[in-house]
Amino acid sequence: MHITGTPGYDQIKQTTLRFVEAMKIGDKPGIYRKEAGEDESFYGSYHAAHILDLFGELSLLPETTRRQWAELFRQRQTQQGYFSGKADDVRRVRSLEELEPVWHYTRGNIWALRILGYPAAQELQFAMPLLDAGRLYRWVKHYDWSNPWAAGNQVLAAATVLMAMRDWFGATEVDRVLEQGMFPALEELLDEKTGFWGTQYGADLSNALFGTIHITPIYFAQGWTLRSLERNVDSTLACQLSDGSFWPGGSDCPDFDGAYMMANLAALTDYRREDLQLAARKYLAHALMHEDTEHGGWLLHRRDSVPADWVPRPHWIWKEGEKKAFAELRDEDPARTHIMLGSWFYPLSIALISHFLGDTGYEGPYQFRNDSLHVCNVFNPPAVPGKQD
Questions:
Q1: How many CB atoms lie within 10 A of CB 34?
Q2: What are 135-158's pLDDT values in tens digits?
Q3: CA atoms of 315 and 309, how far apart (whole Å)
């Protein structure tokens, strides 16, 4: 069904693409900054591709442009198959235990390649140990689930890799391995009292929300039933702040996470539907407080906030040899105002809320995919098994 863009859709598309264009470096396809004043950035390129895809612009590029862009990601792949920005990793063979620092980076490269329509150059040999269901089960369970935000990120990356092994390289056993290994582990780690992962181990609701949003797309992609929906709704609504945000002063990742859960929960249950609708409208008003209509792009913090309102958000970093993630605090510098991630996650979250509510004035032909898992929703059109969107 064709959806016509509303004036609101056209507005946020223009705001967003202005920033993407401003971050472009030179004429070579795919070279972008992540933020003003920086040099070329992998994350700038990866997020720019997803932004263009959200608004249907990526598929309009010539095939030669998309192929050259994809080659930037393919060149980051090591001989063992994982992706790294470090030259020393090209020939380095990592054990399963040594992969922690590269899971997130590998995930981003694979998602970018999938939406560009190209496979990795090398088979994903590094993940072969996880094709054993028992080992996959133990691997999921070995994480510290008192920090589901960090653990969920790693598990989502592994699911991404396994699905790519299936779709790119014909690993037909992947669905069975996920069903017999990852699914039972995640089911055992779900706290039925909250509908979130990790709260029974001491995680607060916000950390658990930010972990849960990394687990639920796996369920949707694989067609697994998400349990404890009513408690999930209760917990998600409890995480929303009075200004509609999910982080003090607003923050792209937490805010997207809250919007993602609200839109998808509303597609799964009618429980507290009026409360979800009110929360979604409050969130939409909040998200628009990040729009920079004057300069383009989306602000790191609400327009009406001041540094005293902000709480530095942790970015979970896995250092070489460490068994737990390290919280690197960022985003508290008033000189940093816009980053590429915000220009992906705020429009994406508005797309989700407009899909849910249907009367926001921001409805439009947003592109939702099943194979880039941050854009995989329970209401997406069914994917053809073994075929990219």
A1: 21
A2: 999 999 999 999 999 999 999 999
A3: 19
Structure confidence at residue 331 as a pLDDT band (50, 70, 90): confident
Q: Are 78 and 90 in contact (CB under 8 A)?
A: yes
Measured CA to CA, the distance from residue 169 to residue 127 in angstroms comes to 13
d(CA 196, CA 203): 10
pLDDT score of 17: 98
| DSSP summary character for residue 26 | S
- Which residue in the block uniquely carries the two structure tokens 């999930």? 232
C-alpha 34/C-alpha 48 separation (Å) is 9
CB atoms within 10 A of CB 365: 15
Domains delineated in the chain:
7-375 (1.50.10)
CA distance 165 to 30: 25
pTM above 0.70, yes or no: yes
Using CA atoms in the order 353, 239, 228, 144, what is the torsion angle rounded to 10 degrees?
120
CA-to-CA separations, 23 to 9, 44, 120, 142, 371, in angstroms, rounded: 21, 8, 26, 40, 26
Ramachandran angles phi, psi of 142, nearest 5°: -75, -15
- Both tokens of residue 76? 């980051």
Tokens of 34: 């992540």
Long-range CB contacts (within 8 A, 24+) of 206-210: 206/239, 206/246, 206/247, 206/254, 207/147, 207/148, 207/149, 208/148, 208/149, 208/235, 209/235, 209/236, 209/239, 209/246, 209/254, 209/257, 209/258, 209/261, 210/148, 210/149, 210/152, 210/253, 210/254, 210/257
Confidence at residue 388, expressed as pLDDT on a 0 to 100 scale: 39
Q: How far is CA 226 from the centre of its chain?
A: 19
| Residue 198: φ, ψ to 5° | 100, -15
How close are the terminal C-alpha atoms of the chain, in Å? 16
